[in-house]
């Protein structure tokens, strides 16, 4: 047996071959030991190893070939996982180079273990369509209608054979070699299509093109590919890389007109040009050039600098868009810096050589003829980016070396001076070696060697931290007082350059900013003079900022005042940077909570370079309501706050509260906002990411734009809000800011305290999140609109709570719906009440229930015993009371007189039955009319009886036998049959039973079992039930429509008295009815009809209650066949009149209870 591949398939092959061998050789007729030995000799060494060490056969099993085969079968073919086998089958695809026949064979083998049954062929067909490699074949198969497996295989074979024949018929030909046609172009002396007309590059061709004369040196470097293969190299050579300018072909070349050089400077210019030419920076040009620029002379005390003015060339140049490093990119690397050295590249741009084409573009005019630059000249727009990129490439990999522009900073870091010097020496040596290697020339002019503090890009770096450049400070101090608005802008703009060092800058600049307001006349006043003096004083007392440390936790403090935002970036309580800005006119109208959140947004975006991607960032705020906003769902916040919170999703913030006195830095900054609010400030020009668009997006968030209301309705809400005293106090509180404790909030606004952080103001309208806060004067009208479709109270509230809000809105909506006259007239059925069970009987035939029913046009009387559930039925020749009483007497004579009989209010159970009850001494109890649940025991027995009679009639059986068997069947969870509980014996039936079983036995514990059943049924029933409040005498109610009343109107009546625990006697239009509590609804006084004509203010006015009509005032109205009293009697007093018992009653007869007051 082969162990290569799938063992299960290999075993099937081996077993089939062995069985064929046994059949051919006739070895089956020999002794089993010989058969077993033959099997072992054929299975191979690997299979014998399995046989010896894995099967654990007994001695007898080792001599039986059938046992060996079965055990090997179990080993090589374990139980299959159908789900996995189907997954493997569903993953089969035709491999590259695999024929369709082999693919189908593989599919058949896989499908054999999937237990597809009759669907096997269809599944293989589907797998062929989905897994075939040829896309065109798949399309043809999908277009075929009624595709079968055989058809699919034949189509695939035909397509496969067609492809084979087509490849055989193809003639292998190569396209003829053609020389490239070289376009005729001006000043193009070489072939334009060199790349296209030559074969792909090789190392030899690249060397010939880049450095044809450079010597090739052997290299010890081994080049290893991603795949692990080693790539052999020809060697290494040195060459000088050049800079190439990419031009926009749509911008035409311009030849500028030449300009004269002043006579006094001609000699110096000539000398400088000769020096540049001698140094190899420029060369004369005699050939025509498309682009010619003018020369710019920059006179400096030390030397004369010449550059070009390539105004038109810069328009055509394509930028490489290389990110220029800033000081912020360096500062975070200096937390342990102690030793510094600053060097600069000498003639930085002139160390970059131009290629020939780019050199021609830099041609410029001189009095001594045209010249062109061989090196990267000053004035070209792409020069800084090109040089910065090349410098970064040359110094890549050197730690502690920070190049910005042509300056290179060397930093020695360590916990001690010795460690810092050692670190510095190693970095300086590495820099010098790299500069020698790449031939980067350094200058001595800016050299600051191994100093404790260094001047670097307008700042002073030291081991203590960051300080401003004294030259910048001196420039502010020496600036004269402004004489116009532009002078103020220059002063504030220059001060903003040092704003990160001035936490008190904005308060000083506030008077100066007022001079920049639109349409403000220029008046220089003493306060402006004092502001300039204070500004210059601040410049002389600026703090030292700590270096940013990526390993330390970071904190931002932010605060907002009425005029500006302020923030501070801190680590371990020491400032790293300050920032502030003024609020725009739109932002000044924000609620205080929105301003506070905006200050956090400003801080995160201003310090994005430091904060993004950090672990939890602590944001300190002195506005306590802002804390809960960050912990609530986003949709609960107002729209503008949602926009701000979405902006902050990029930062892992942990907002904490800090009292205002401890937030002195950010508080001072917010009240001292620097510069103008937004546009064109130095802050924005130096910011890592522009905040202008985000600020405008937040400013333009208007909650009213998201409301589906007309402008007239919005104006109405705004007008009523302005007239609402409570909402005006709330509005002022929101704009100024909520106090820290509830007791300090305005009294009339305290009800909004729990969700104060969700309230905002937009265009004079108050919002709670996305919901409009409705003023009190508009609430009646809104209630009418909410309930205009007359839906239920809960539904109305769910509809209203999405867009509207006012305190106690849910209660007011429910009260409004409950007092709606239309809803009360056409109300649904009330919810069922909890189960109220009858008294438990303690013996048989003590409590009975009766009911009448009709089956197949025959009338029956059913009597059921509450104790045993045993029921009797009597066929009635008619439905008269006399006939019913006769049948009852016969049953009572058989089983005895009951104590209580429960019936409905049918005509058979009226006066005659009452006399019968009196004569036979039992209590007659009637259930509430139209409420069959009150006589549930009889209703359940009627259902069983009807079912037995119906089935017996269907089979043509004797119904009395069915009733006999039912009476003799034990009841579930009772352990006895109805007959046993009633008669203390089993009844003899056609089912065989021993005499012992038919002997009388008293059943005990029936009452307890009945109590348990009732409790269990009540617990389940009461889950969806609730009790209704009891009705009081004289209370106005509405009665459920009578049967046959198609209008569905609940009629108004008066409650006269309670007949039973849940049954009441009511007077409706002069007729008396007894009804269950669920059929009676309290009719609340309503003024809905007058509200429609008198305006919204009348919606809560009480309706005048009219006393129910007496019999003398209105004739009786009989709308039901059997009211309790169809001919009313004139009462001695009006129905429902309050009794004279010394208590106070309402006009509808309800007892007025005085309130319970706390007495101390």
UniProtKB/TrEMBL annotation:
<feature type="region of interest" description="Disordered">
    <location>
        <begin position="178"/>
        <end position="219"/>
    </location>
</feature>
<keyword id="KW-0378">Hydrolase</keyword>
<dbReference type="Pfam" id="PF17917">
    <property type="entry name" value="RT_RNaseH"/>
</dbReference>
<dbReference type="InterPro" id="IPR036397">
    <property type="entry name" value="RNaseH_sf"/>
</dbReference>
<dbReference type="InterPro" id="IPR050951">
    <property type="entry name" value="Retrovirus_Pol_polyprotein"/>
</dbReference>
<feature type="compositionally biased region" description="Low complexity">
    <location>
        <begin position="1096"/>
        <end position="1123"/>
    </location>
</feature>
<dbReference type="InterPro" id="IPR041373">
    <property type="entry name" value="RT_RNaseH"/>
</dbReference>
<dbReference type="InterPro" id="IPR001584">
    <property type="entry name" value="Integrase_cat-core"/>
</dbReference>
<dbReference type="GO" id="GO:0003964">
    <property type="term" value="F:RNA-directed DNA polymerase activity"/>
</dbReference>
<dbReference type="InterPro" id="IPR000477">
    <property type="entry name" value="RT_dom"/>
</dbReference>
<dbReference type="GO" id="GO:0015074">
    <property type="term" value="P:DNA integration"/>
</dbReference>
<dbReference type="InterPro" id="IPR043502">
    <property type="entry name" value="DNA/RNA_pol_sf"/>
</dbReference>
<feature type="region of interest" description="Disordered">
    <location>
        <begin position="1083"/>
        <end position="1160"/>
    </location>
</feature>
<keyword id="KW-0548">Nucleotidyltransferase</keyword>
<dbReference type="InterPro" id="IPR012337">
    <property type="entry name" value="RNaseH-like_sf"/>
</dbReference>
<dbReference type="InterPro" id="IPR041588">
    <property type="entry name" value="Integrase_H2C2"/>
</dbReference>
<dbReference type="Pfam" id="PF17921">
    <property type="entry name" value="Integrase_H2C2"/>
</dbReference>
<feature type="domain" description="Integrase catalytic">
    <location>
        <begin position="840"/>
        <end position="1008"/>
    </location>
</feature>
<keyword id="KW-0255">Endonuclease</keyword>
<dbReference type="GO" id="GO:0004523">
    <property type="term" value="F:RNA-DNA hybrid ribonuclease activity"/>
</dbReference>
<feature type="compositionally biased region" description="Polar residues">
    <location>
        <begin position="190"/>
        <end position="200"/>
    </location>
</feature>
<feature type="compositionally biased region" description="Basic and acidic residues">
    <location>
        <begin position="1083"/>
        <end position="1094"/>
    </location>
</feature>
<keyword id="KW-0540">Nuclease</keyword>
<dbReference type="Pfam" id="PF00078">
    <property type="entry name" value="RVT_1"/>
</dbReference>
<dbReference type="InterPro" id="IPR043128">
    <property type="entry name" value="Rev_trsase/Diguanyl_cyclase"/>
</dbReference>
<comment type="similarity">
    <text>Belongs to the beta type-B retroviral polymerase family. HERV class-II K(HML-2) pol subfamily.</text>
</comment>
<dbReference type="GO" id="GO:0003676">
    <property type="term" value="F:nucleic acid binding"/>
</dbReference>
<keyword id="KW-0808">Transferase</keyword>
<protein>
    <recommendedName>
        <fullName>Gypsy retrotransposon integrase-like protein 1</fullName>
        <ecNumber>3.1.26.4</ecNumber>
    </recommendedName>
</protein>
<keyword id="KW-0695">RNA-directed DNA polymerase</keyword>
<dbReference type="Pfam" id="PF00665">
    <property type="entry name" value="rve"/>
</dbReference>
């Amino acid at each position: 047996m082969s162990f290569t591949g799938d063992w299960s398939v290999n075993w099937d092959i081996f077993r089939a071959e062995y069985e064929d061998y046994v059949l051919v050789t006739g070895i089956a007729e020999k002794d089993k030991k010989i058969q077993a030995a033959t099997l072992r000799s054929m299975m191979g060494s690997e299979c014998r190893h399995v046989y010896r060490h894995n099967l654990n056969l007994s001695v007898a099993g080792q001599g039986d070939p059938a046992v060996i085969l079965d055990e090997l079968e179990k080993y090589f073919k374990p139980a299959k996982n159908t789900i996995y086998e189907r997954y493997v089958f569903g993953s089969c695809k035709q491999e590259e180079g695999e024929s369709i026949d082999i693919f189908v064979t593989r599919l058949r083998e896989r499908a054999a273990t999937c237990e597809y049954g009759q669907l096997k062929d269809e599944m293989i067909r589907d797998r062929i369509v989905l897994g075939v490699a040829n896309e065109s074949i798949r399309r043809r198969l999908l277009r075929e209608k009624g595709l079968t497996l055989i058809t699919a295989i034949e189509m695939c074979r035909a397509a496969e054979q067609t492809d084979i024949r087509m490849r055989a018929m193809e003639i292998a030909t190569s396209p003829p070699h053609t020389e490239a046609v070289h376009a005729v172009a001006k000043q193009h002396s070489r072939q334009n299509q060199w790349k296209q007309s030559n074969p792909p590059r090789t190392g030899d061709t690249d060397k010939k093109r880049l450095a044809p004369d450079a010597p090739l040196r052997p290299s010890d470097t081994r080049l290893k590919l991603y795949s692990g293969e080693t790539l052999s190299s020809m060697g290494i050579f040195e060459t000088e890389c050049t800079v190439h300018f990419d031009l926009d072909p749509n911008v035409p070349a311009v030849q500028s007109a030449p300009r004269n050089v002043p006579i006094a400077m001609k000699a110096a210019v000539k000398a400088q040009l000769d020096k540049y030419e001698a140094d190899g920076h420029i060369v004369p040009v005699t050939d025509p050039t498309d682009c010619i620029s003018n020369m710019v002379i920059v006179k400096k005390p030390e030397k004369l600098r010449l550059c070009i003015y390539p105004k038109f060339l810069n328009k055509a140049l394509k930028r490489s868009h290389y990110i220029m490093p800033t000081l912020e990119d360096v500062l975070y690397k200096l937390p342990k810096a102690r030793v510094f050295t600053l060097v600069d590249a000498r003639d930085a741009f002139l160390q970059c050589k131009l290629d020939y084409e780019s050199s021609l573009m830099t041609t410029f005019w001189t009095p001594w003829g045209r010249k062109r630059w061989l090196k990267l000249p000053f004035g070209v727009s792409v020069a800084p980016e090109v040089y910065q990129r090349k410098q970064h490439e040359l110094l890549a990999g050197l730690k502690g070396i920070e190049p910005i522009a042509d300056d290179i900073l060397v930093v020695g870091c360590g916990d001690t001076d010795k460690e810092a010097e050692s670190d510095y020496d190693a970095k300086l040596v590495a820099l010098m070696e790299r500069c020698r290697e790449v031939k980067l020339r350094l200058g001595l002019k800016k050299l600051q060697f191994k100093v404790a503090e260094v001047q670097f890009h307008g700042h002073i770096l030291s081991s203590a931290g960051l300080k401003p450049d004294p030259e910048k400070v001196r420039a502010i101090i020496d600036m004269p007082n402004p004489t116009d608005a532009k002078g103020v802008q220059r002063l504030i703009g220059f001060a903003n350059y040092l704003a990160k060092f001035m936490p008190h800058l904005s308060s000083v600049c506030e008077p100066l900013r007022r001079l920049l307001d639109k349409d403000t006349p220029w008046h220089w006043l003493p306060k402006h003079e004092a502001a300039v003096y204070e500004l210059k004083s601040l410049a002389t007392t600026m703090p030292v900022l700590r270096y940013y440390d990526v390993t330390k936790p970071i904190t931002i403090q932010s605060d907002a005042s009425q005029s500006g935002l302020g923030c501070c970036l801190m680590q371990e309580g020491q400032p790293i940077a300050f920032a502030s800005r003024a609020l725009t006119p739109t932002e000044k109208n924000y609620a205080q909570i929105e301003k506070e959140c905006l200050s956090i947004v400003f801080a995160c975006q201003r310090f994005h370079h430091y904060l993004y991607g950090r672990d939890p960032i602590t944001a300190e705020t002195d506005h306590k309501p802002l804390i809960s906003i960050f912990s609530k769902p986003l949709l609960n916040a107002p729209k503008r706050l949602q926009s701000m919170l979405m902006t902050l999703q990029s930062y892992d913030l942990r907002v904490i509260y800090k009292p205002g006195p401890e937030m002195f830095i950010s508080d001072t900054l917010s009240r001292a906002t620097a510069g103008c609010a937004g546009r064109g400030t130095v802050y924005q020009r130096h910011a890592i990411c522009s905040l202008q668009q985000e600020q405008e997006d937040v400013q333009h968030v208007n909650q009213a734009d998201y409301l589906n209301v007309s402008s007239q309705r919005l104006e109405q809400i705004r007008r009523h809000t302005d007239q609402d005293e409570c909402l005006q106090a709330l509005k002022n509180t929101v704009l100024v800011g909520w106090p820290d404790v509830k007791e300090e909030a305005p009294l009339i606004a305290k009800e909004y305290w729990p969700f104060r952080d969700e309230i905002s103001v937009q265009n004079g309208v108050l919002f709670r999140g996305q919901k409009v806060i409705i003023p009190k004067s508009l609430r009646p009208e809104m209630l009418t609109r909410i309930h205009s479709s007359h839906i239920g109270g809960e539904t109305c509230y769910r509809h209203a709570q999405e867009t509207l809000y006012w305190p106690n809105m849910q209660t007011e909506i429910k009260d409004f719906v409950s007092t709606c006259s239309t809803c009360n007239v056409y109300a649904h059925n009330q919810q069922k009440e909890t189960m109220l069970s009858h008294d438990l009987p303690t013996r048989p035939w003590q409590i009975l229930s009766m009911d009448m029913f009709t089956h197949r046009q025959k009338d029956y009387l059913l009597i059921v015993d509450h104790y045993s559930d045993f029921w009797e039925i009597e066929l009635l020749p008619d439905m008269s009371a006399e006939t019913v009483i006769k049948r009852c007497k016969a049953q009572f004579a058989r089983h005895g007189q009951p104590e209580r009989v429960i019936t409905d209010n049918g005509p058979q159970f009226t006066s005659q039955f009452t006399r019968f009850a009196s004569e036979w001494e039992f209590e007659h109890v009637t259930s509430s009319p139209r409420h069959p649940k009150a006589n549930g025991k009889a209703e359940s027995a009627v259902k069983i009886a009807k079912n037995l009679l119906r089935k017996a009639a269907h089979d043509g059986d004797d119904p009395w036998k069915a009733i006999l068997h039912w009476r003799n069947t034990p009841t579930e969870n009772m352990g006895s049959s109805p007959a046993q509980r009633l008669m203390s014996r089993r009844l003899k039936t056609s089912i065989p039973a021993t005499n012992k079983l038919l002997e009388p036995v008293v059943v005990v514990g029936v009452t307890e079992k009945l109590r348990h059943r009732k409790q269990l049924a009540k617990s389940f029933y009461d889950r969806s039930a609730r009790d209704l409040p009891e009705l009081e005498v004289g209370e106005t109610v509405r009665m459920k429509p009578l049967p046959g009343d198609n209008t569905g109107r609940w009629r108004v009546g008066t409650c006269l008295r309670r007949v039973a625990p849940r049954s009441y006697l009511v007077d409706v239009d002069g007729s008396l009815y007894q009804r269950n509590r669920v059929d009676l609804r309290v009719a609340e006084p309503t003024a809905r009809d007058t509200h429609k004509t008198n305006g919204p203010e009348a919606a809560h006015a009480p309706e005048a209650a009219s006393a129910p009509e007496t019999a003398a005032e209105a004739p009786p109205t009989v709308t039901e066949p059997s009211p309790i009293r169809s001919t009313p009697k004139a009462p001695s007093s009006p129905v429902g009149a309050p009794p004279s018992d010394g208590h106070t009653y309402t006009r509808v007869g309800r007892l007025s209870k005085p309130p319970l007051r706390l007495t101390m």
